[in-house]
Amino acid sequence: HNFVNQIANCADVLQEILKTLFEIILFEDSSNHWSLGKPMLSLILLSDEMYAKLKSQILSSQSADKHPHIL
Question: Among 19, 24, 31, 70, which one is least packed by beta carbons within 10 Å?
Answer without folding.
Answer: 31
